[in-house]
Design a protein that fits this description.
Serine Threonine Protein Phosphatase 5, Tetratricopeptide repeat; two-stranded antiparallel ribbon; TPR-like_helical_dom_sf; about 70% helix; Tetratricopeptide repeat protein; about 325 residues; signal; mainly alpha; 3 domains
Length: about 325
């Protein structure tokens, strides 16, 4: 059964991953044949990313290192480094037919592709991981795959973002033991879909985010608490509650941490300040967000920030998505 699942996962990747300049390694019979352009460019990342590279000893157990340190690389915005080492680790586990590690690496790499705006690659890796998952034993992997698929559906505006997140919640509900952190992650993605997707419901999104924030606080995940508060501020902004949005954002100003979180913070606060006609402050925050987006090579975010700067320059206070 595992052999069949592996071949199916390889087929998914080989048939849909190789598209565009940043094509991931072509997969045939479970082995990578090339290194993606994103991975080759990892040496261009900021110096703090270079300081997070694996040592010679780490490289002897590369899959374990990537799975253990991948979250640090991603939180710091070192997505190309994560892909660089993750692809090599993926080759190793495929050769050794380590299906559990392969599944975990596919999911981990999928999120880095998402942050870089490579949505086709993200979707392909997430679906390949789902194919390798046993519905009973590997339900967590299926849930992670579904919320990644939901995120891609949201940015592509294809209308399935909410249903995919709800499917993930249903799987969690069927388990005997609670999974508070994973539930929080899915609720966060559901709220994003309800905020930005076709099925908008700002009040429902606010409720989901409030529940997610509580779960993240209970499990001690401050990084996700901050991200959730920024999302809550976005909901308040879209509802026209600018003072409430600004109060939420200012309350976490000194807890931001990683560069992507700082970028999202300054981008959202710039929107709020623009709506409040605080032109100069909005310009300053938008410029900070732009600098961070450029350093992170976050092209999709950069495009949005440049449009925001144009609106600030034009003194346009029309609410922007």
């Amino acid at each position: 059964m595992k052999k069949i699942q592996c071949l199916l996962a390889g087929f998914i990747l080989s048939s849909s991953v190789c598209a565009g300049e940043a094509c991931a390694a072509e997969v045939h019979s479970g082995e990578s044949k090339e290194v993606s352009q994103k991975a080759l460019n990892h040496a261009e990342e900021p110096s703090y990313c270079q300081s997070l590279q694996p040592s010679a000893a780490d490289r002897l157990s590369l899959p374990e290192w990537v799975l253990g340190s991948g979250s640090v690389l991603k939180r710091q915005g070192c997505w190309r480094s994560h892909i660089h080492w993750g692809e090599r680790a993926l080759e190793e586990v495929r050769k050794g037919k380590q299906f559990s590690q392969e599944r975990a690496l596919l999911l981990s790499l999928a999120s880095s592709y998402f942050y870089l705006g490579e949505y086709t690659l993200c979707l392909s890796f997430a679906k390949a991981a789902e194919t390798l998952s046993d519905p009973k034993k590997d339900w967590r992997s299926i849930v992670e795959s579904l919320y990644l698929q939901s995120a891609v559906a949201r940015v592509k505006n294809d209308g399935r973002a909410v249903s995919l997140a709800e499917e993930a919640l249903t799987i969690i509900d069927r388990q005997k033991k609670p999974a508070p952190f994973l539930r929080g992650k899915v609720l966060y993605n559901l709220a994003a879909a309800l905020t930005d997707g076709k099925e908008r419901s700002l009040e429902r999104a606010r409720e989901a985010l409030m529940n997610a924030e509580t779960l993240f606080r209970e499990t001690g995940n401050q990084y996700d608490v901050v991200r959730t508060v920024i999302r809550l501020a976005r909901v308040s902004y879209l509802q026209g509650h600018y003072n409430q949005a600004l109060t939420r954002l200012n309350g976490i100003q000194f807890q931001l941490g990683p560069p992507r979180t700082r970028m999202l913070f300054y981008q959202q606060r710039a929107k709020v300040l623009l709506a409040m006609k605080e032109w100069q402050k909005a310009e300053e925050d938008a410029e900070k967000a732009k600098e961070l987006a450029m350093a992170l090579d976050a092209s999709k975010d950069l495009d949005r920030i440049v449009l925001l700067q144009k609106r600030i320059h034009e003194r346009s206070t029309v609410i922007s998505e």
